[in-house]
């Protein structure tokens, strides 16, 4: 498995730190959509939605393809899968730490 670089991880977490961008990712995972269709869902300008999509693109979480006059946004499922694997590793690390703390507390007794 390809490991993500620190800059790739930073870009992913930055992109997903915003509620609108997380919503865009969820929508395009479900079904590819044009930037125009995405923009209709939000109370913000088309340009603002384009900027959100650009941040997601920079993190390689989505890609845009031109279809005539429209730009269709697709989820990058493999990249999202790698981000999930990273989060799974963090979860394992913290679960291990909690188990160690519990073990130490059990050894010490009341």
Explain how this protein is built.
Helices cover 66% and strands 13% of the residues. The chain has 110 residues and is of the alpha+beta class. The chain has a three-stranded antiparallel β-sheet. Helix 1 (6-16) runs antiparallel to helix 4 and helix 2 crosses helix 4 (46-58).
Task: Write a brief caption for the model.
This protein has 110 residues and is of the alpha+beta class. The protein is built from five helices and three strands.
Order of helices and strands: HHEHHEEH
Give the class from helix and strand content and strand pairing: alpha+beta
Q: Report the average pLDDT across residues.
A: 93
User: Separation of termini?
Assistant: 45 Å
Radius of gyration: 19 Å
Low-confidence stretches: none
Main-sheet strand order equals 1-3-2
Shape: elongated
List its salient traits.
110 residues; alpha+beta; three-stranded antiparallel sheet; 5 helices
Can you lay out the helices and strands and say which pair or pack?
Elements: H1 6-16, H2 19-30, E1 33-34, H3 35-39, H4 46-58, E2 62-67, E3 70-75, H5 77-108
Antiparallel strand pairs: 1-3, 2-3
Helix pairs in contact: 1-4, 2-4
